[in-house]
């Protein structure tokens, strides 16, 4: 009943075994299987062994893959790229789409966005639709910063995938994220350079990667200069929490002279709490936020010094790396985009207009 | 050289004339041309004459249209609907997409979103791409509330189109918008019911339809009860303007006891201006906003009474009307979706949790 006679396989399968079959049997991504079989030293020895065993069991031969890979490359290109977002309010998805379109447009591609609301079943069904309509590749846009499970190779059917904002848990995939560790490190560097010595951190929920990473970056700078924060408080991404936390801090630490808030919402609440207690911002207490969510940061009173998530740049990078993958030059690992600091009145009373943000990127492999 | 012999035409054309040709010659939309030729009494007599003349000039025959229309209906359906948004930050586009998907998903359709940044050339090129990939229809999502030029029939190629948030200028098209007039009327009704008598309006820029409509609705209620606002100030959609306007109002109108702000950003600024001047909100001055932009309205201090733009419901309605058009039952005109009022602390000091929003819709033809 087998349609093609297996040539040298130990155990015949009903169709010519593909790299995806090997990946499925070894329970790894296609990218990982490819790397293992190409011996790129990017997978652990035990994973390598499991993949090679799976390939032998299925009678997979690399020539099969080459044929299939080149048929993929010969596949009629549609010039369309699918973005799948789990974002509800569009704060990440639209700037990401805009950035991606800038890069894609320059090579005559266009982007289509579909919304999965973070529901895996809907995500799969959207990808099926996009694949059926011939998209050339996928960008998966998150909204939490938390690592997510990689897409099943059965779902992506060999389409190249870039993960943006929320990285894939599989380091062999290509993920583009904000450099939250770098932002945290720079925030404390900046506050120390202003002469502030009694610095507290008001964070969001502890189970968000962004909260962990920004706090970790801050800690790195504290350690470097042999300082310690006077307090690190985790709770919620809300103004209410920022206000409550600021009140707690003032009661317990009268010398408090700076707060690094891990979101602009928290920062606005903190400013309110400080002002209600008769503190001047920034003269008595300097406040730094994160997100550069314009409606919050630039409309605040005082306006907020903050870090820009640089989402359009994430979209551009994701698109560029996807085009590279389509051209046969895939990237593997987690790449970061710098969050430029935007200085406003909450740390600098004379700063009426924000510093030009540099928009520089640096990327590094953290796999 | 004509490929098909014109049967009874006065002036032969190179292809069999279609309804789109007639519409183009008469400089109207296909929908308007259809209505004129079907004598539905929905177009003015002069437009009707122009369209009939164009049809005669081209030798257009209705049988041609029926054939073409039924071929459109017979066209292989993809189950895909294209959304084109001019929104940059996603505040309107993503909730609209979510609402549309709810309705479309129930009839096994899915939605693809593309971003045009309000650039007509990009909008056209996106529609070309979507049409080439077989979408069944289009939803055009605005972000200003201002009426927009209808899409060129040459661009839409007979695909049904629904305009959402920003209506089409052609009343023969189908547009779904927020009932801003109704929201304005209800805002003043509510403030009067609270016993407030010295009511001011702080508006956004005068050239936004939303500002005009909300102010017009407010004026309608004032007139009904034989009241007048103490001031109506137009300027910008910003917190800074809200704050400045509130300060002006307090200086000039010491009896001021309520402000209807035409956006939540303005309302937040107004609250700040009032509090800085020693006024209590809502005990001395009640404040109402508009948008129910959650991060602004629910995080404010006091939380803001406001009107919800009900964007997911706009998306649902747009999808439903598009499905109707695909089933051969098109709608024509401008339909409104109610903006439910959400009562919070800025008008009601005991209101800790917001009133359940009703989510009711009423739609009416305003063409």
UniProtKB/TrEMBL annotation, chains A, B:
Which keywords accompany this UniProt record?
DNA-binding, Transcription, Transcription regulation
Per its record, what are the GO molecular function terms?
DNA-binding transcription factor activity; transcription cis-regulatory region binding
Matches recorded under InterPro entries: HTH_LacI, LacI/GalR-like_sensor, Lambda_DNA-bd_dom_sf, Peripla_BP_I
Annotated HTH lacI-type domain residues = 17-71
Tell me the CDD domains matching this sequence. HTH_LacI (cd01392), PBP1_sucrose_transcription_regulator (cd06288)
Alphabetized Pfam families for the sequence: LacI (PF00356), Peripla_BP_3 (PF13377)
Q: Which residues form a coiled coil?
A: none
Matching SUPFAM superfamilies: lambda repressor-like DNA-binding domains, Periplasmic binding protein-like I
Q: Does the keyword Transcription regulation apply?
A: yes
Location of region: Disordered: 346-367
PANTHER family, per this entry?
A: HTH-TYPE TRANSCRIPTIONAL REGULATOR GALS, LACI-RELATED TRANSCRIPTIONAL REPRESSOR
- Protein name, entry field: Substrate-binding domain-containing protein
Organism, by scientific name, is Bifidobacterium aerophilum
């Amino acid at each position: 009943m087998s349609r093609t006679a297996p040539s040298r396989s130990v155990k015949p399968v009903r169709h010519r075994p593909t790299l995806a079959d090997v990946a499925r049997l070894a329970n790894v991504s296609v990218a990982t299987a490819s790397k293992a079989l190409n011996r790129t030293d990017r997978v652990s020895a035990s994973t390598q062994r499991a993949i090679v065993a799976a390939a032998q069991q299925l009678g997979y031969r690399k020539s099969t893959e080459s044929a299939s890979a080149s048929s993929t490359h010969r596949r009629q290109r549609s010039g369309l790229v699918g973005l799948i977002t789990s974002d509800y309010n569009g704060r990440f998805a639209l700037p990401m789409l805009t950035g991606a379109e800038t890069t894609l447009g320059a090579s005559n591609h266009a982007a289509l966005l579909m919304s999965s609301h973070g529901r895996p079943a809907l995500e799969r069904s959207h990808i099926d639709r996009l694949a059926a309509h011939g998209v050339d590749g996928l960008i998966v846009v998150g909204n939490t910063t938390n690592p997510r499970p990689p897409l099943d190779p059965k779902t992506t059917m060999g389409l190249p995938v870039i993960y943006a904002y929320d990285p894939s848990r599989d380091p062999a995939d290509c993920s583009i994220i904000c450099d939250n560790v770098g932002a945290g490190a720079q925030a404390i560097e900046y506050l120390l350079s202003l002469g502030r010595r009694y610095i507290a951190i008001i964070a969001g929920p502890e189970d968000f990667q962004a909260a962990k990473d920004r706090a970790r970056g801050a800690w790195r700078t504290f350690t470097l200069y042999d300082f310690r924060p006077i307090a690190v408080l985790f709770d919620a991404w809300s103004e209410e929490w920022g206000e409550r936390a600021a009140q707690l801090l003032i009661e317990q630490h009268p010398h408090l002279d700076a707060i690094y808030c891990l979101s602009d919402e928290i920062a606005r609440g903190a400013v309110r709490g400080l002002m209600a207690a008769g503190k001047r911002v920034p003269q008595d207490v300097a406040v730094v936020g994160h997100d550069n969510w314009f409606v919050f940061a630039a409309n605040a009173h005082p306006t907020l010094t903050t870090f820009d998530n640089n989402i359009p740049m994430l979209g551009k990078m994701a698109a560029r790396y996807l085009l590279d993958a389509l051209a046969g030059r895939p990237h593997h690992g987690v790449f970061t985009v710098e969050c430029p600091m935007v200085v406003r009145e909450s740390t600098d009373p004379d700063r009426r207009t924000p510093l030009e943000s540099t928009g520089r990127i640096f990327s590094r492999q953290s796999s």
